[in-house]
Amino acid sequence: MTDPATLVEIVEVSPRDGLQNEKRLLPTDTKIELVRRSVAAGLRRVEVTAFARPDRVPQMADAEDVLAGLADVEGLSKIGLVLNRRGLDRALAAGCDEITAVVVASDGLAVRNQGVDTAAQVAAFADIARDARAAGMPTTVIIAAAFGCPFDGEVPTERVLEVARGVLDAGPDEVAIADTIGVGVPAQVTDIVTGIRALDAEVPLRAHFHNTRNTGYANALAAVAAGVTVLDASAGGIGGCPFAPGATGNIGTEDLLYLLERSRIAVRSNRPDDAPVDALAVAATGTWIATELGLPQAPAMLGRAGWFPRP
Predict the structure, then answer these.
(1) Does this model's pTM top 0.90?
(2) Residue of 241, 257, 260, 298 marked catalytic
(3) Which CATH fold topology does 4-304 show?
(4) Does the active-site annotation cover 241?
(5) What are the domain boundaries of the chain?
(6) Model confidence pLDDT, tens digit, residues 247-281
């Protein structure tokens, strides 16, 4: 195993980013079961829902009901995605344990995603961070489209660092970078992470990758090598952004677990006696949720190929 200082944590995002772009609307009970299975496999932090307008993201219309169904789950930190102050108010009232707020690095996607440009989103995040801090709510800011925009094209690293500088002024508990449409490569990851670390040597860093062009897993390793300690992933590799044409699934949690373990990178678990996250249980969950969504198979590979060597 690696040194404990390099311990990596996985945020399971299948209940939010994994589901939000799927055409088949799932029952609330199925979403709750997805979170419960993830926790049982050893995952601690789960992005359980988003507080968005139901007419724009109908899959998230039952956010409060999902959270109510998870109130008794021990060892779970329930994350809610918020886009504005109203979203924060809903997250606080619904019982989230932490929130993730979004600031889009490109104006093109920012306007289509939230109706305002990047500068306005940075200003809005400052208010969200202040009020969340006052309420005792841990807050992550995710810089979306940090590697490229479906509308504006290339997003220069300098632009991402300018946005990072703005959100860091608000004092987030964690900063995440997101390859929203899956165009990034490891060299970009290294440049962005190194640049953010130069701006703030202490803030925890998180990364969110899509595997649209088969670079997601390479990017995850590059992120860890550069100092990122938290990685988003989705059981089954399901997911995408409804406002980003061409976006496909997140990196699969089970495939990421295989990659990290075989690379001797330790993953934080909430299982008894520090037992590792059960990758095969996650793979079974990925297969199950793909079936619930009516997909021919889960995009992730571990559920099909199995572990090596065989257990």
Answers:
(1) yes
(2) 241
(3) TIM Barrel (3.20.20)
(4) yes
(5) 4-304
(6) 668 999 999 999 999 999 999 999 988 899 999 99
